[in-house]
Design a protein that fits this description.
Elements lengths: L1 H54 L2 H6 L8 H11 L7 E6 L4 E4 L9 H4 L2 H10 L3 E7 L3 E11 L6 E10 L1 H51 L14 H36 L3 E6 L4 E4 L1 H7 L12 H6 L7 H7 L5 E7 L2 E11 L5 E10 L1 H36 L6 H32 L7 E5 H11 L1 H6 L3 E4 L8 E5 H17 L6 E9 L2 E8 L21 H6 L6 H11 L3 E7 L3 E9 L11
Parallel strand pairs: 12-14
Antiparallel strand pairs: 1-2, 1-5, 3-4, 4-5, 6-7, 6-10, 8-9, 9-10, 11-13, 14-15, 15-17, 16-17
Helix pairs in contact: 1-6, 6-7, 11-12, 12-17, 13-15, 15-17
The protein binds adenosine-5'-diphosphate.
The site of adenosine-5'-diphosphate (ADP) has 23 residues, from α15 and α17.
């Protein structure tokens, strides 16, 4: 609103300037012209009169009289005859006694000339003997030109009288008034035209300026789509052009900045590492979602005025602001710390503004729990493998040494020892086979032969294979599923037989003589379920999730005695998962264990070809 008023005031100011300029110019011209005209007209009257008087020889003829006063009648007769009719102005002859001796105006004849005429010029002519003139207004406001000419006596050479002419200037005055009126009218018209033209011109200036202003207004509200129309090539057109250029540049720069910002925001939002930016006072400037997640801060929580020390400084003395500030003075620092169950690697460094001045510190937190776990697992694995290989090797070595030391001579002992060596070699063989299979699974080098199969005959086959052991242990193996039905799944038969064998042999291994094992298979929630349940020794609650880990054995001695490697369930889980299935264990110590395998049914589309 203010801007509009401002522009309208500019418009009116331009109009006013035009108006005043034209007004002043016209007034000066009018005054000057009128004055010139007046001077010209009056000069013309004077010159005309003087010329007429001189050419008429009136002064010479009057100069011949010795005494004008004594020849009044003759002079009057002369005036009546030669001037009254042909001369438009009033012409009088004033004698030395200042009486009007004769005149074309009979009303003033005989009167004192000083009362009737301008006494100043009369006296001046009488005294100096030179013609004089003045302007005056006589009765009824008639402007007149007074001219006095000296009558020089032929005898004495002195001034014997004065010829006094009064020329009526009314016509000149009315001409001048008329002219004045015309000037005023012309000025009025000119001013109206000036105002109109001024308005149009002012508009042509203010409209583009208004345009620019409106566009700037919209730009200030974030709309950069506006362009100012370039209508001319003058300064305003150039201004509009420059403005459009500026707008484009600004738009481009802003969109670049916004792109960069979006990019940065996306990176910050989706980066897995936590990032916290703080100023040098330790106030939090930014914490990305990962950082909030790590520190358990709500996504919506406002972190303005929250200090770094209250967020991270309390975790360890080496994470305090004072410490990291000093530590990253020359180059960034790094550290690791535990926060709850998570281990983090922390890196921090200062960040600078455009002038290279330090403005804050960026702290990056990387969750290395998994990496650490993996590293620990790898170390454990190597230790386990070494240990598992070393145990049978030690046994083999000690028995062979004993044999070589003489036990070979005692045949019964030798056979017993060799059997032990054989068993340990078998264990090593199994161990190496399992390790190789795990390695193939890990490196996805296992060849898969996936086919649609009914799972029930496979269960029967496995049950048949363990039949002997079941009998030996006097276990009761119940196959609960309906053999007439079909549960079709996509499996590699050999690998899956290995899975079922592992689970079933575990149930047999960890169930005491006389125990009971149930095997069931059914479809639930569109998934094939295979359940192997035993009432064996069971597993302590906290250890159940760990039985799928490599080399994890609840009871090492028992597992070992049973010929287990501790890798069976790890391999089983990996094979099941390769079939898009899951394997779960439920167990109660002393009551029994249930292993449930779930597989997608073959009716599902998108048959997987693992090979
Ligand atoms: P192992 O070769 O020792 O049997 P597994 O990987 O097959 O190794 O099993 C890991 C551990 O899980 C076993 O050592 C055992 O302690 C436990 N376990 C597996 N199945 C059962 C079960 N049915 N009942 C009790 N414990 C079991």
């Amino acid at each position: 609103m203010d801007k509009v008023r401002q522009h309208s005031s500019v418009r009116w100011r331009i109009v006013l300037i035009y108006f005043l300029l034209v007004f002043i110019a016209m007034t000066i011209v009018s005054v000057f012209l009128l004055d010139q005209m007046k001077t010209y007209q009056i000069n013309a009257v004077r010159d005309n009169l003087t010329k007429t008087i001189h050419e008429s020889n009136l002064l010479t003829s009057l100069g011949r009289y010795e005494e004008l006063a004594s020849n009044k009648a003759e002079i009057q007769a002369n005036l009546d005859e030669n001037w009254s009719r042909s001369f438009a102005e009033e012409l009088s002859v004033v004698c030395r006694d200042f009486s009007v001796c004769a005149s074309t105006n009979p009303n003033i004849v005989g009167r004192d000339a000083r009362d009737v005429f301008d006494p100043g010029i009369l006296l001046n002519t009488f005294v100096t003997g030179e013609g004089s003139e003045s302007d005056s207004v006589i009765s009824e406001n008639i402007p007149v030109k007074n001219m006095s000419y000296p009558i020089l006596s032929e005898q004495t050479g002195g001034v014997s009288g004065v010829v006094y002419v009064r020329a009526d200037l009314s016509s000149i005055s009315s001409f001048l008034s008329q002219s004045k009126l015309i000037f005023v009218q012309a000025m009025f018209l000119a001013l109206i035209i000036t105002v109109l033209l001024g308005f149009v011109i002012a508009r042509s200036i203010t409209v583009p300026i208004n345009d620019v202003t409106r566009t700037v207004q919209r730009m200030s509200q974030g709309d950069f789509s506006q362009r100012v129309q370039v209508k001319s090539d003058d300064e305003i057109g150039q201004l509009a052009q420059m403005f459009n250029l500026l707008r484009e540049k600004l738009d481009f720069t802003l969109s670049e900045i916004s792109n960069e910002k979006n990019k940065l925001e996306t990176i910050l939002t989706y980066m897995a590492d936590g990032l916290i930016a703080i100023d040098l006072e330790g106030l939090v400037l930014h914490a990305n979602p990962a950082a909030r997640d790590i520190l358990g801060i709500d996504e919506e929580e406002d972190l303005t005025n929250v200090t770094y020390d209250s967020l991270l400084g309390h975790i360890s003395p080496r994470m305090k602001l004072s410490y990291i500030k000093v530590n990253c003075e020359e180059e960034g620092g790094e550290d690791t710390f535990d926060y709850g169950a998570t281990t983090f690697a922390v890196r921090y460094d200062r960040f600078k503004d455009d002038d290279g001045k330090d403005v804050g510190i960026i702290i990056i937190m990387q969750d290395i729990t998994e990496r650490q776990k993996l590293e620990d697992m790898q170390t454990d694995f190597v230790a386990n493998v070494s240990h598992e290989l070393k145990t049978p090797l030690t046994t083999i070595k000690s028995y062979t040494e004993t044999l070589l030391d003489g036990a070979l001579d005692d045949r019964a002992t030798a056979v017993r020892f060799l059997n032990i060596v054989d068993t340990e070699a078998d264990r090593m063989n199994r161990l190496v086979k399992d390790l190789l299979q795990l390695s193939r699974l890990d490196h996805r080098q296992e060849k898969w032969n996936i086919k649609e199969s009914n799972i029930l005959p496979l269960l029967n086959t496995v049950a048949t294979k363990v039949d002997m052991t079941v009998r030996q242990k006097q276990l009761q193996l119940n196959l609960l599923y309906d053999n007439d039905k079909q549960i079709r799944v996509l499996i590699d038969r050999d690998r899956f037989e290995q899975v079922l064998m592992n689970v079933l042999s575990n149930a047999i291994k960890y169930t005491d003589r006389g125990g009971r094992i149930d095997v069931d298979a059914f479809v639930k929630n569109s998934l094939a379920h295979i359940v192997v349940r035993d009432n064996g020794i069971g597993i302590a609650e906290g250890e159940v999730p760990r039985i799928f880990e490599r080399f994890y054995r609840v009871d090492k001695a028992r597992s070992r005695a049973m010929g287990g490697t501790g890798l069976g369930l790890a391999i089983t889980k990996q094979i099941v998962e390769e079939h898009n299935g899951t394997i779960e264990a439920e167990s109660r110590e002393g009551e029994g264990t249930q292993i449930t395998i779930k597989l997608p049914l073959a009716t599902r589309r998108g048959k997987r070809n693992i090979e």
